[in-house]
């Protein structure tokens, strides 16, 4: 250790210990003890920010007015521990300077005012794996390829070879430079969410098409109404695509080129009924499809999902208009014979829609579903819906009881608001016609007997006011149940 270095070290150590009220002499005695672990992890930064050694995290959220100084970086660099994550969110930082060499892997710079980035800002952060620049003021002009320039080697700049995840969401970007990712060839996750692109122009398409390792792409809330057909030609391994909150009126045709896509989220788009031309193209790898909060779908027609023959999870919840589910929405006539092929569905969510009946033929292996969510729909409890009432709901009750609650009848009028589960055991057909008199009579007798007994008890215990109140409440609920029962058999 040279003299200058030693001096700087002592100065930083003192600075770090000062706020803790440790005096000069205490520092000196620390020095003589020469316990490396004890002195090497006291960094000046840890007095400003929270240093969480256990989680290898420096948390400077809402704690800084500017970037770390050179001395602060040096004191960090000299510690035996390398903090893998640094959070600098909510600090009003406006620019990113060239950062010194440090082994940080996850750098969170969201919720600042960052509008400019020095060229090669990250080139000495050779371990950098995840970079979050979301919720800043980045523009298309700021984001030039050399911003992500890697370390300089003898001939040329090397790529930032560890950077796998880049979040550019919630900025002011309208288009991407066509070479923006030239230094990031191994990027696996990219978010462009909530930047108002409106259209994917040719330059942006080129930039995205060049990301041959891309696995996850978030293009939600970008005001997009179309996608270029060929945008997914480049990212062959694209696994997850999020297109929520855009302006698509149809299922984008470009999807037919994302051959390896496994997960697709299309929530909150004005996509119309899934029928005719507007059905899903062949996406044989797709396992997870989510289309919730669709305002304009009332019909899922024949063949809507027929080409998704590997689908295991289908989420169609919160589609307030959705009223018609065609029996051939999932099936495909593959062999030309008597049997249809169905995807190996495991989870089906149809909650919070406007469905009245569930056609039995919609699926074959209902018994293979581990989740069937039918809650909060205006179910029709006529005989036409018998399969759902007599078979599906009891099955849901035995596997996932929570999902059997709030599956209620809307029709016929006399069963309105009644849990479907409650009419399973009774012969619902005759119940609706009011002829199962013995069964109903017994229930009425019980329901009438209880309040009479309780009322008797209340009279008996008159004077004990806390008890009186309780019994009154109990009486009220029981009386309302009796009146429900009257509705029930009219
Ligand atoms: C950090 O350690 C190096 C040698 O390992 C030394 O040259 C340098 O002066 C030290 N810096 C500080 C700030 O302690
Ligand atoms: C420094 O690290 C040692 C173990 O590595 C730990 O016992 C000690 O509490 C740390 N000191 C500070 C100030 O973080
Ligand atoms: C950032 O700026 C806002 C508004 O000027 C202020 O309220 C906030 O305290 C600043 N944050 C920091 C960490 O200085
Ligand atoms: C980054 O590393 C290079 C080469 O080691 C060095 O010349 C340069 O000063 C470093 N940049 C910063 C900001 O530390
Ligand atoms: C469908 O899923 C199975 C099992 O997960 C998998 O082995 C098969 O390769 C998938 N088919 C396609 C076309 O991806
Ligand atoms: C739900 O469907 C019924 C017909 O079954 C229709 O009258 C009603 O308008 C629909 N509600 C919505 C919100 O689309
Ligand atoms: C499948 O298609 C063939 C020929 O188009 C037809 O004869 C057969 O009935 C169809 N199978 C089913 C189950 O609809
Ligand atoms: C629903 O399940 C519960 C146990 O989880 C059982 O006690 C009850 O009888 C079931 N209801 C019907 C109608 O099958």
From TrEMBL:
The chain crosses the membrane at residues 437-460. Pfam families: LRR_5 (PF13306), LRR_8 (PF13855). It comes from Drosophila mojavensis. InterPro entries: Dev_Immune_Receptor, Leu-rich_rpt, Leu-rich_rpt_typical-subtyp, LRR_5, LRR_dom_sf. Residues 1-25 form the signal peptide. This is LRRCT domain-containing protein. Keywords: Leucine-rich repeat, Membrane, Repeat, Signal, Transmembrane, Transmembrane helix. PANTHER family: NEPHROCAN, SLIT RELATED LEUCINE-RICH REPEAT NEURONAL PROTEIN. It comes from the Eukaryota. Gene3D superfamilies: Ribonuclease Inhibitor (3.80.10.10). The gene is Dmoj\GI17623.
């Amino acid at each position: 250790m040279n003299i200058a270095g030693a001096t700087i070290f002592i100065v930083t150590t003192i600075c770090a210990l000062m706020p803790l009220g440790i005096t000069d002499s205490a520092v000196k005695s620390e020095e003589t003890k020469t316990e490396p672990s004890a002195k090497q992890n006291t960094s000046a930064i840890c007095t400003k920010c929270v240093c969480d050694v256990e989680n290898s995290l420096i948390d400077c959220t809402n704690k800084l007015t500017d970037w770390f100084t050179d001395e602060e970086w040096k004191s960090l660099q000299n510690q035996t521990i390398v903090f893998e994550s640094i959070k600098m969110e909510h600090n009003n930082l406006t620019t990113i300077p060239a950062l010194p060499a440090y082994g940080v892997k996850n750098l969170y710079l969201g919720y600042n005012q960052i509008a400019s980035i020095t060229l090669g800002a990250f080139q000495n952060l050779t371990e950098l794996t995840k970079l979050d620049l979301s919720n800043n003021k980045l523009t298309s002009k700021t984001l030039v390829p050399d911003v992500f320039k890697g370390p300089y080697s003898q001939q040329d700049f090397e790529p930032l070879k560890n950077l796998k995840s880049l979040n550019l969401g919630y900025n002011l970007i309208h288009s991407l430079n066509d070479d923006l990712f030239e230094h990031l060839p191994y990027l696996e996750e990219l978010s462009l969410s909530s930047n108002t692109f409106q259209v994917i122009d040719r330059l942006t398409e080129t930039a995205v098409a060049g990301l041959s390792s891309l696995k996850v792409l978030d293009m939600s809330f970008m005001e997009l109404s179309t996608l270029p057909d060929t945008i997914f030609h480049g990212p062959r391994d694209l696994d997850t695509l999020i297109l929520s909150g855009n302006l698509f009126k149809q299922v984008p045709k470009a999807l037919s080129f994302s051959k390896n896509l496994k997960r697709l989220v299309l929530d909150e788009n004005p996509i119309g009924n899934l029928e005719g031309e507007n059905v899903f193209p062949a996406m044989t790898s797709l396992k997870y499809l989510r289309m919730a909060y669709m305002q304009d779908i009332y019909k899922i027609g024949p063949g809507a999902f027929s080409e998704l023959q590997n689908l295991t999870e289908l989420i169609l919840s919160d589609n307030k208009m959705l009223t018609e589910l065609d029996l051939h929405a999932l099936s495909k006539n593959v062999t030309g014979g008597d049997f249809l092929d169905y995807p190996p569905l495991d989870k089906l969510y149809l909650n919070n829609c406007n469905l009245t009946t569930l056609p039995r033929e919609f699926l074959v292996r209902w018994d293979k579903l581990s989740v069937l969510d039918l809650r909060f729909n205006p179910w029709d409890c006529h005989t036409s819906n018998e399969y759902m009432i007599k078979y599906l709901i009891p099955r849901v009750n035995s596997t996932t009881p929570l999902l059997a609650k709030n599956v209620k009848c809307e029709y016929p009028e006399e069963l309105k608001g009644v849990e479907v589960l409650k009419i399973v055991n009774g012969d619902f057909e005759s119940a609706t016609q009011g002829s199962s008199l013995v069964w109903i009579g017994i229930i009425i007798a019980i329901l009438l007997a209880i309040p009479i007994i309780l009322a008797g008890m209340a009279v008996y215990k008159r004077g004990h006011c806390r008890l009186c109140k309780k019994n009154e409440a109990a009486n009220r609920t029981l009386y309302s149940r009796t009146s429900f029962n009257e509705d029930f058999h009219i």
